[in-house]
Amino acid sequence: MNATPVASPQAQGAKTRINDFSIQVATVNGSGSQTANMVLLRAIFQMGVFVSGKNLFPSNIAGLPTWFTIRASAKGYVARKASNELLILMNPETAKEDIASADPGALVIYDEPLQLDRIREDLHCIPVPFQKLVTASCPEPKLHKLVKNMIYVGVASRVLGVDMEEVRKAIAKQLKGKAKAIEMNQTAATAGYDWAMEHLEDQLGVRVVRDNKTDGLIIIDGNEACALGALFAGCTVVGWYPITPASTLVETFIEYAAEHRKDPATGKATVAIVQMEDELASAGVVLSAGWAGARSMTSTSGPGVSLMSEFIGLGYFVEAPGVFFNVARTGPSTGLPTRTQQSDVELCAKCSHGDTRHINLYPGNMEECFQFAYDAFDLAERFQTPIFVVTDLDLGMQNWSSKPFAYPDKPYDRGKVLNQQQLAEAKDWGRYKDVDGDGICYRTLPGTAGGKGAYFTRGSGHNAYALYSEKPEDYIEVMERLNRKYETSKTYVPAPVIRPMGSSIGVLAFGSSDPAVIEAQDLLAESGLPTDYLRLRALPFTAEVDAFVTEKRVVYVVEQNRDGQMANLFREAYPEHGTKFKSVLHYNGHAIDASTIVDQINAFEQR
Amino acid sequence: MSTAAPSAPTNRLGLTKQDYVGSKSTLCAGCGHDAITTQIINAAFESGIEGYQVAKFSGIGCSSKTPAYFINQGWGFNSVHGRMPAMATGACLANKQLINIGVSGDGDSMSIGTGQFVHAVRRNVPMIYIIEDNGVYGLTKGQFSATADKGSSLKSGAVNELPPIDPCTLAIELGCGFVARCFSGNPKQLGAILKSAFAYRGTVVLDIISPCVTFNNHDASTRSYKHVKDHDFPLHDLGFIQYSEVEDVDIAAGQTELVTFPDGSKVAIKAIREDYDPTDRWGAMRTIHESMEKGEFLTGLLYINPSQPPLTDLLDLVDEPLATLPESLLKPSREVLAEIMASLT
Fold first, then answer.
1. The pLDDT of residue B153
2. CATH fold of B17-324, please?
C-alpha cells in the first residue's frame, strides 16, 4: 500500500455510498468486454453484495458501441438506475457523449490519450495508460484488445475496494477450464490493480464493503432459467428458428439436454430438437408434436410470433398443446432487436385471426422463469392449447441474482388422454365432447391400437365428434366451450403477487418491471404516498385480480410499451371499472427504472 | 374388426379392403384425386398396413381434403395452407413408429409451401409426400398454379407465360431417395409405386398428375385427361414384392432390375425405355429434362436410393415414441438440479 487515503472530489461533504452505486462501462461490441464486465459483476457478487448487470448491446457482431451497467444495492434493488457513480469509458467513438451525460461528481476511468479531463471539471477523472499496461502484461499483440478490458477490471477493483482474490476467482469461474486464458486474464487484471495501487489515491465516494447478502445465491439469465424449466418438464420435441433475444433459450436447452436427456440404458436421446427453416415451420412442429403426444416447445420473439400466428390459431381451434416462449424485444417490425420491451402483450393474448384467447404466463424473476416454464407444459397438456410464456430481453438475456431453484416435485400433468383400454371402456367417445363440463375434452394419440380412438383433426368447422360441420349450432357449441375451457384455466394459472401497504391506490405491473416497481413503491411510500402493488402473473385474470381492481380507487398499470396494451386488456375485461386504469409507460428500449414510475404516478396524483 | 362380408378377401392382418376406406368424398365427380384415394386404399390394404399406425396430414385445397377419404382407422390432420410438411415433421418426432402420409397439391406445395417442401425433403422426413398435381387452384375456382405448363390456358382463355416448377427434379436435386411421377388415370402403375412407397424409410415424393375435371379439363390445358393420356410415357413396368413374399416370388431375369429396401422388400423394374436407370441421379435428371422439353409426361419410378437415413435416425432417438416416455425417463433427478445450481453460484 503506497497510496494514502485521500477523499475524492465527489466524497467531499457527501457520505460514502457503500454497496449502493451503478457502474457504466462503454466499450466496442465484439471486443470481449462482456467477459470483463461479468468478472467485475461476479467479483462484487462474491464480496456478498447484491448486484445486477445489464448489457445494452447493438444489433451487430463487432464494431458498434455497447454499454454494460452494473448496479450494486444493499437494499436489494436490481432495476436499472438512471444515474451512474462510476463510468469506465473505453470507446473513443462515444467517450465525449458518455462524459457529457455523466452526473456531477462521478468517477471516470478512461484511456489516457482521450484526454477527457479537458471536457468537464466537475468529474473525478482517472486516466489510465492502457496501452502501456497491455504491452507490459501480455506478450501476444493479437490478444491485446481482449486483455485491455481485463485491465479496467483491475483498476476498477482498486477504485471500489474489491478484493483482488475475488477477481481472480471470478476470472476462473467465468472462463471455466481454459487454463491459459485464465492465467492471461488474471495477469492483466493484476497489472491494472497494481498500477492503480501505485498511482491512485484511495477514493471514499463509492465503496464495496464485504457483506453476506449473496450467500447461497446463483447468477443466471432468464433464458437459461426457462431452458432448465423445460428440461425438468420433460420437453420432448423442440422446433425452433434463431432470433435475438430468444435463441439462447433453445441453445442452452440443447447444451443441458445433451448431458441430461439421454436414456441411461442406451445412451439415446429422449428429446428431438430440430432447427427449422422458419418460425412458421417451427410452430407447425410444436403443434403437431403436441397433437401426437409430445411435450413440445419453441422459443421466439415478436416477429416470430407474428409469423406463427396462423398456426397458433389452428392450435387454439383444433386444441393441440404446445409451449411458445416469447422473449420480447422492441418492435414494431425489426425495431430495436437487441433492446427490451413489453409490447407483445396484446399479440400473445389474442394471437391469430378469428376469436382467440390464450393462456399467458408472465414470469417476473428467475425462479418464476424456471417454475412457469415447467408449469407451461402441464397447462398445455391440461388445456390442450398453445401456451405463451412471455418474458423479454431484460429477463431473458440479462444476468440476475436469484435463490437457487427448488426441485419441481409436482408430477407431470399429462391431461385428459385416453389409452387403448380406456377407449375400449368409453361409451360414445367424441373428441370434442365436454363430458366433465369444464370445457376440456378427452383426446387420443395417433398410434393408439384398438381401432377406437382415431379422429380427423381440422381447422375448419367441426362438431363434438370431430366431423366436418358448417352448422351454426355446432360452431357456436365449439366456440362457447372454448370460452368455458378458458374460464376453467383461471383456477390453474398462477395467482398474482400482492405487496400491500393498506392503500386505495393500486399499482399493477408484470414481468421484468417488477424490480423497478418495488423500488418505486418504496420511494413513493417514503415520500408519503403508500400504494398497493399487484404483480400480474398470468392471463386469464384470476379472482384475486378481480378483487384488486374492484377495491382500488385507481389502478396505475405500469408497462413497457407505448400503447398501454395491458391496460387495454383490463379495460376490456372490466368495462365497469374502465376509468380507473391509468397508464404508466416506458418504451425507449432501455429497461424501466424506478424514477420513471415515481414521476408519472406523482404527476397523476398532482403531487 | 372386419366390417365387410365374410367372403371378402383379406390381407396378412386378416383385414378387408373395407377396413381401409374413409368417409365419402365431396370432390367433383370424376376428379383425379378420387382415383388416387382409391389406390392409396388398395396399396395400404395389399401391404397390410396397420391403420392405427397411420397419420395423415394435409394443407389446404381440394387435395388436402382427401385424407378424410381413406384409412379411417388412422389419425388425420388437415392443417393450414402449405404447411403440411411441418405437421408431418412434428408428428414423426413425437412418435417415430407412425406411418406418415402427406397429401398436398401443386398450389399447396409448389407455391405457398415450397419452402416447407424443400426442407422436409432435405431432412428426409419419413413420409409419403403426395402432390395431387392438376396445375390449377380448384377450391378457389380455377387460378393457375406454379406447376402449370408454359403456354397452357385457363377456361377463361388466360395463357400461362411462366415456366413451371417441377417437383420431381427439385426433389432429386435436394437428395430425395424416392421420386416418382404418376398419372391418376394409370391405376396399375400408381398402385405399384404406392406399395413400394409404404416400404420405404424416408421422404417419398410422388407427383401425381391428376386432372381437374371442373377447371382444367378443356382442350387447351396440358393437365386434361386427354392431353395427359396422349403424352404419358411410362418408363417401365413396376412390380413391388413385400419383404414377406420375396422368397416365394420367382423374379424374372433379363431386362428386370431389382432395387432392395432395408427391410428386404424389392421393387422389380422392367424397363420400357432401355436407357433409363432409376439409380442414376444425374441420368434421371437429364432424361426428365429432355422429356419435359418434348412435352411428355415421363411417368414411373424416376429415382431411387433406399440407403439414406431418415431424420428420425439422424437424431439418434430412443426406440419407443417420445410421446409416451414415462416421467422417470424425462425428469432429471434432484441431484442433477443441485449440481446445476452449484455451478451457477
1. 84
2. Rossmann fold (3.40.50)
